[in-house]
Structure prediction request, 267 residues.
Amino acid sequence: MIDVKRPRTPQPRLRIALVAPPLEPVPPPRYGGTERVVATLAEGLHQRGHDVTLFASGDSKVSCRLVPTVPRALWAAGHRAEIGPYMQLGIAMVAGRENEFDVIHSHVESYGFMFASRSSIPVVTTLHQRQDLPPSAELVRHFPNVPLVAISENQRRFLPQANWVATIHHGMEFNDVPAGSGDGGYLAFVGRIALEKGIDVAIELARRNRLKLRVAAKAFQPDEVALYERVVRPAEQEGVVQFLGELPPAERDDVLRGALASVMLGG
Prediction:
C-alpha cells in the first residue's frame, strides 16, 4: 500500500510544453476527450511545480501559461472544414520556441511527427486515436524513431513495431463526480457518433435487451452527421434511443449516474 501522506522527494522543475488540438477549449465545455485529458495533465503538472506552457485555443482556461494557437476553438467558431493547417500552425508555434523547453508533449496526433523527428528537444506524442487506419498507420511507419505513448494496449497492438515508450491510460479527476445508484433502468452512451466508438453496437445491445439507450454525444462533423442519420435517427424513431446531443459535465454526470451501465463498445 502506498502511503499518500508521506512527503514526496523534491523533483527537478521541468519546463514542459503541452500541445493540444485547436478544436475545443482546454478544458472543453462539453464533449472533448483529448482536450479534457490535456487539461487534467496541465493542471496536475502545474500543481507539482513544473513550468508548464500550453499551446491551445485562446479561449482555454488553465492555471499554467497559455499560448493561443487560434483566438477561439475552431468548432465553437463554426469551423467544419479541414483542420490540418491549424494543427500544423500550432506545431510551428512550438517549433519556433523549442529551446525554451526541456520536453514537449504533443497531443496533435501525426501532425507533429516531422517536428518530433528533427527537434533538438525531446518530443513525445500521445496518440489518442485508433492507429489501424490510413494515413495514421503509414505515418507511424514512416517515422519509426518518434517516441509514442499509447492510451491502451489494444491501441498499440496494431503497430507493434512502432517506438512505443509507454502505455498510459487516461487519468481524469473524479472528485466532483457524484456516485450513482444506476436505478434509471437505461443504458448510457457518452462520446461522439462514430463507428470506432461503437454507437451501432450499443444500439443493438439496447435493442436486444429491450432497454432505452440515452446518447449524450457530438454529431456535427460530416461523417458523424451521416452516421447519425443512418444509424441513430432510425433507432430514435423506433424508441430505442433518446439522443441528447452534447451535454455539459453536470448534465452528463446525471445521465451516467442513473444508468444501469455506460456502454463503450468500439474497437
